[in-house]
Amino acid sequence: MGAQLRIDGLQYGNWSRAIFEEMRAAKLDAVHVTATYWENARELMRNIGAWHRRFEEHADLIMPVRTAADIDRAQASGRTGIILGLQNCSPIEDSIDLVSVFKQLDVHIMQLSYNNQSLVCCGYLEDEDAGLSRFGREVIREMNRVGMVVDTSHTAERSTLEAIEYSSRPTVVSHANPQSARATPRNKSERVMRALAESGGLMGFSCYPFHLPQGADTTLEQFSEMVAQAVDVMGVEHLAIGTDLCQDQPVEVLSWMRNGNWARVMDYGEGSAEQPDWPAPLEWLRGAADFPNLERGLEARGFAPSEVDALMGGNWRRFLDEALQPQG
Amino acid sequence: MGAQLRIDGLQYGNWSRAIFEEMRAAKLDAVHVTATYWENARELMRNIGAWHRRFEEHADLIMPVRTAADIDRAQASGRTGIILGLQNCSPIEDSIDLVSVFKQLDVHIMQLSYNNQSLVCCGYLEDEDAGLSRFGREVIREMNRVGMVVDTSHTAERSTLEAIEYSSRPTVVSHANPQSARATPRNKSERVMRALAESGGLMGFSCYPFHLPQGADTTLEQFSEMVAQAVDVMGVEHLAIGTDLCQDQPVEVLSWMRNGNWARVMDYGEGSAEQPDWPAPLEWLRGAADFPNLERGLEARGFAPSEVDALMGGNWRRFLDEALQPQG
What we know:
The structure is a homodimer.
Chain A (H helix, E strand, L loop, with lengths): L6 E5 L5 H9 L4 E5 L6 H17 L4 E3 L4 H8 L3 E7 L11 H7 L2 E5 L22 H13 L2 E3 L5 H10 L5 E2 L16 H9 L3 E4 L14 H15 L4 E3 L9 H9 L32 H10 L3 H19 L5
Helix pairs in contact in A: 6-7, 8-10, 10-11
C-alpha cells in the first residue's frame, strides 16, 4: 500500500465530468458508486455499459477498480478508482448464478435489500423482518465465494444481524450512522455495530442529512463527535466514510429511489408530503470536492494522524484488499 | 349458468393434444393451468404466446377463459376452457403496473409466493414468515381492483392469513388439503380453512400424493372422507377440486419446480435424495381423463347430487363469476 488514501464508501451522483473533476479536486483515490437501486439484470447491464463509456471518455480522471491494488494504481496515476456496487439485490433477480456473472462485470459490493423486502431478506422500512430467506443464505454463500462484499446499509435489523452471522467473511454497512446519533431505523443499533466490529466488518459514516443528528444543520463538529462516540463502540479500525452524496440529482430521482415501480401511491420514505424534496445540503459537504473537510473535522476533534488516515480511506483499503478476492 | 360443470382448479401438464383430448374425455369444462413457477415477465409472455398457439392449433378442444361465462361457452361448444394462472408472483417482478398488464393478457389467478420468500410475502418452505410486505399490500389491492384472484396454495401460514384479511375480495387456495388429513406445512391448518370460508373463499382439494393421507396409496374412499371432514369445517360451498396433476412431466421439470434458479445445491422440496422423482400416480387419477372418478367417490361417500355438483365445478364457477370482474 502507498501513501494516505481517501476513499468514499458511497456516492450516487448524476455522473458527469464536473463530478469526476470534483473527485480529483478532493484527491479521492476511490469511490464506491451505486449502479442499482431497483434495476433488474438487464437494466444493470445498461448501467454497467454506461460506466464503460465513462471510463473511456474520462480516462484521465477515473478508472475501474477490480482489486484493491487498483486503488493504489488510481492514486499513483492521479485518478479516482470507481468501485461498482448495488444498493439492492434486484439485478440478480432469482438467479444464484448471476452473482458470479456480475462479479465478473466488476460489481464488488451488493446490498441485500433496499428499504423493502427482497428475495434475500428484509429492508428497514418493512413492519416485520423475518431475516434471511432460503435464497438469501444461498446468495451470501455465493457472494462469500466470489468475493462480493455483503452490504446491509438499508437492511432491517434482524436481517442485518443474521447476515453478519451467516456470512463467512466480514460484511459492511457502507453508509449509515449510529442510532445513538439519530434514532431512525435507517441508522444502526449498537448491537449491529458491535456485531459488525466483532466480525471484522466496516461501517461508513453517512453525510445524508436525514441520518445526522441535526439534519442539514449538523455541524462538522457534531459529525466528528458522532465519529468519536462510534469509535468507542466499534474501534477505529472498523469505521470509515460513506457520504451517500447524491450530487446533481433531480427530485425525480429521489422519488424513484423511494417508489421504484412498486407503489401506485407516492411513498415519501425519509421525507414527507410537506418535504418531498432532497434535504438541504450540509454547508461543509456540498459535493465531492468538499470531502477533505471531513479530514479537517476529524483532526480538529483530536484524532491522531494514523486514525484520520484509517477513517478517511485506510480502513476501506485494508478491508477491500481481502474482501474482493475470490475464496480458495 | 348451464348444466352441471366440471372444473379442475389446478393442472400443469406437459401440454399436448393428447392431454386436451383427455380433458374432453373427462368432460372438463374448465381447467386452471399454471403458466409460471419461477418465470419473470418476459418468460411469462413467452408462455402466454405458447398458449396462443395452442388455442389456434387445438381450437376444437380448448378455448381461453376471460370471464366465467366463457366456461359456459366452453361447455356449450364441447370444449375445455383454459384459465391461465401463476403459481408465483415472479412475473410481475417489482412492478405494480404489471398486474393489470397480465390481467389484460388473461392471467386471472396468481399465487403470492411459491415455496420461497417472494417480494410480496412468504412461501411455506421458509423457516420464518413476516407476512405481507409493503409491495405485497400494494399487489393485493391492485389484484382486487383488476379482478385477479389471490391464490395462497404455496404460501406460508401467517402470510396466508394476512392475505385473506387484507384482501377486500375472497381469495383461494387452489390446490391443497387440510393439515388434519396430512400434517405437512404445504397443506392448510383449520385456522386458515375457517378464515378462508368466512371470507367467502375457496379451497380446491389436491390429488398430489405428497398432500394426501397415504401418499400414492391413498384410496378414493380416503380422499372422499377427507372431503367430508373438510366440509364439516368450511361448508360445502367453499370447497372444490384442484388436482395438481402434472401430467407427462419429466423429472427435470419437477427438479426445476423445486430449485428454479435460486440454489447451487439440489433442493428436494417435498421429496428427498432417496426419492427425488415424481411420486407414483394414484390408481384412480392417473391423468385428466380420470377426473370423473372423483365424482364417483363423492357419490359413494353419500354426498347429495347438488353437493357433488358444487364440489366438482359449481363452486369454482360461482366464485369466478364474481372474482374475475374488475372492481367498480
